[in-house]
Structures are given as C-alpha cells and as structure tokens.
Automatic annotation (TrEMBL):
<keyword id="KW-0812">Transmembrane</keyword>
<dbReference type="InterPro" id="IPR007343">
    <property type="entry name" value="Uncharacterised_pept_Zn_put"/>
</dbReference>
<feature type="compositionally biased region" description="Low complexity">
    <location>
        <begin position="23"/>
        <end position="50"/>
    </location>
</feature>
<dbReference type="Pfam" id="PF04228">
    <property type="entry name" value="Zn_peptidase"/>
</dbReference>
<keyword id="KW-1133">Transmembrane helix</keyword>
<dbReference type="GO" id="GO:0016020">
    <property type="term" value="C:membrane"/>
</dbReference>
<feature type="signal peptide">
    <location>
        <begin position="1"/>
        <end position="22"/>
    </location>
</feature>
<keyword id="KW-0732">Signal</keyword>
<feature type="region of interest" description="Disordered">
    <location>
        <begin position="23"/>
        <end position="53"/>
    </location>
</feature>
<keyword id="KW-0472">Membrane</keyword>
<protein>
    <recommendedName>
        <fullName>Metalloprotease</fullName>
    </recommendedName>
</protein>
Length: 239
C-alpha cells in the first residue's frame, strides 16, 4: 500500500475478490481486516520485546504517508458527512516503551497503539509497528493508523452517532477511510495488500489480553465491520 496517484484496482474489488498485477479481478481474495485501539504485535515468530531486522526508515515513511492520506481523507469528507467543521487530531507518532506521551496522567504502554481523547492525539510504539511491518508488510501500518484515527473521529461526533460497540465502529471507519482514500487517489492498493490486511486482522483480533472479545469483537465481527465501511462508506458506520 502506497501513497500514489492512481489505482490499479478498486479497493472494494481487491477486498472481495483479489486483483492481479494488471488490475483484473481474480479469485481467492481475502476478507477485509481491521485493527484495535490497543494493539499487540503478531505472535510468530516475534514476541513482545523482540522485533527482528526492520527497515525503519521505510516503515516510518509508510507511517508518514498513511497519516497524510488518512488525514487528507477526513479533512475533505468529515465536514460533508457530519455538517460540521473538522479539527484534525494531533499525531504524536512513534515512541518506545514508556517514553511516549502520557494520556490522562497514565504513561504510555509498550507495544501499543492508541488514541488519547484527553490529549486528542494518536501515538504508537515503534517496536509494535516494526514487528508487524517485518512479519506482515506495510498494510499493517496503514490499518493501525486508520483504526486509531477512527477513534479520533468518534470523539468529534454527537453521542447519538457513536456506537456502544466503539471498537467495531472504529474498524468500520477505518474501512471507510482507506476505501475513500483509494478512490480519491490518495493511496494505491498494491497486489498482496489484501493478504497483508487479513494477516493484520488475525494478528490483532482477540488473541491478546488487550483485545478482549467483550471489548473489540471477534474476528468475524471485525471483518464484517471493516467491510461495512468499505462498501457503505461513512454513513454505514454511523447508522
């Protein structure tokens, strides 16, 4: 997934059917995935505290491009969708361990990604990003940032538009923003991205203590929420 000017294949087709390098539909595509507010790294082969060799310069460039694309999408579409002015959240970006910005007086958590409502900012542990980037690919970075941005959007809405299933709604908003960014030419979905997105969902679904089913939903619920955003856009996530 890259911040490029044109699409080889519509995102929704990639998610539902797959797409080869020429932009034609192909069978055997993977289901659309999602991320979590507090996100743990893939369990194999890394464990928390071990990352492996990662091109961090490339990873950080992907994070920068994801922030630019997702930010541009919401800057354009939020006012139209909700008939109110849009104020973007601050992107605190990467930290390591407990060296990140505190949220509500609490220190940052290692191997975590989060939106802090009191400070109105997004942040992520660079080792978390590196673990997923190393094992899965750059779609990991885009999806984590899109999900956490979804929580920032929730914080800007009237209470009646925020679902009690806040994590699934953030997954839906992530799907809407990535699909919308692709349609606007802000990102390009590359061959292999659907598989990376599916692996991301499997890695961060409900196998970790920070992502309990009671809070975040199971894998199939999160797939369904993300797909709802992809196919129905912002309105489908707030009805």
């Amino acid at each position: 997934m890259r911040k490029l000017a044109a699409l080889a294949c519509p995102f929704v087709l990639l998610l539902l059917f797959g797409c080869d390098s020429t932009g034609t539909e192909s069978s055997g595509g993977t289901a659309p995935p999602t991320t979590t507010t507090t996100t743990s790294p893939p369990s194999e082969p890394s464990t928390p505290g071990t990352v492996g060799q990662v091109d961090r310069a490339a990873m950080n460039q992907d994070a920068k491009e994801a922030v630019q694309a997702i930010g541009a999408y919401w800057r354009t579409n939020f006012p139209e969708a909700f008939n109110q002015a849009y104020r973007p959240p601050r992107v605190a970006g990467g930290y390591t361990g407990t060296d990140g910005p505190p949220c509500g007086g609490e220190p940052s958590v290692p191997f975590n990604a989060y939106y802090c409502q009191p400070g109105d900012y997004l942040a992520w542990d660079e080792d978390l990003m590196a673990a997923g980037y190393n094992q899965i690919g750059d779609a990991w970075v885009y999806l984590i940032i899109a999900h956490e941005w979804g929580h920032a959007i929730q914080a800007r809405l009237n209470d009646d538009l925020v679902s009690v299933q806040a994590e699934l709604q953030a997954d839906c908003l992530a799907g809407a923003s990535l699909e919308g960014a692709a349609k606007q030419g802000l990102i390009t979905i590359e061959p292999g991205d659907p598989e990376e997105l599916a692996k991301t969902l499997a890695a961060v679904a409900d196998d970790y203590p920070w992502t309990k089913q009671s809070d975040h939903g199971d894998v199939q619920e999160r797939i369904s929420a993300f797909r709802t955003g992809v196919t129905g856009g912002i309105p489908a996530c707030t009805t």
